[in-house]
Amino acid sequence: MLFFSKKKPTLAELIPENFTDIHSHLLPGIDDGSKTFEQTLLMMMSLKYIGFSAFITTPHIIQHVWNNTTEIINNTQDRTLLDLRNSKFTSPFRAAAEYFMDDNFNKLVETRDLLTIKDNYVLVEMSYMNAPIQLYTILFDLQVAGYIPVLAHPERYLFYHNNLSEYHKLKKAGCKFQLNLLAVTGYYGNQVASVAEKLLMGGLYDFVGSDVHHEKHIDSFNEKVKIKDLTPLKEVIKNNEFFAFE
Question: Strand pairing of 207-209 and 60-61?
């Protein structure tokens, strides 16, 4: 008797046609993402072919590294929108930001000077080396100011991998979790893929994002998904419908 195992799909095959991405680095020349408008246009066309229909791009704001401001991002967004229209690319596109939780971020929270991915949802990240000493104070102050923190790629913070209870602590502190889609292909390594699977199975993710910086990231959407149970992944991908806009 022959037994046939179900073939694993590629990540691209799991992206619905109406997918809204909430995490990418597509504004040209503003951080470690796209360098030119031509590169931006090429990447957006490639993502649209996969199924992406709307783009909320999120350039880094990291003090002393990427000193972007609301004004810089908005001005770059406006120029990019004009270039996209001139290139006949009509998919919805706008900019927010990915905020590194540091002293500069605290000042921005105090002044309410934050670019949100929707309403009061703010995309935040932290160092891959260690969490901020005042992490929970930052998260508390952010919510007191009326914002909802969406933690980018929690599966990539290696210092939490051996203590999964920390993820539950973050959720109880009011954090939403955003999965980097490429994590489930093993792009960031098998350990990250394994943690992503555990968080998916535990129902801890709220949304997903591509975190696309360059063409290699887009090419990796053609890699097969490594996780066993696709149901929770499909459900979290569907959650991104919340961010749809025109």
Answer: unpaired
Spatial separation of the C-alpha atoms in residues 127 and 69, rounded to whole Å: 20
**What's the gap between Cα 196 and its chain centre?**
14
Cα distance from N-terminal residue to C-terminal residue, the chain: 53
For residue range 165-185, list pLDDT tens digits in order: 999 999 999 999 999 999 999
Which domains are assigned to the chain? 12-243 (3.20.20.140)
Tens-digit pLDDT profile for residues 79-124: 999 999 999 999 999 999 999 999 999 999 999 999 999 999 999 9
Q: Which helix (H) or strand (E) holds 241?
A: none
Question: What does the alpha-carbon distance between residue 236 and residue 65 come to, in Å, rounded to a whole number?
Answer: 32
Phi/psi for 21 (5° steps) reads -90, 140
Which helix H or strand E contains 20, and what residues bound it?
Answer: strand 19-21
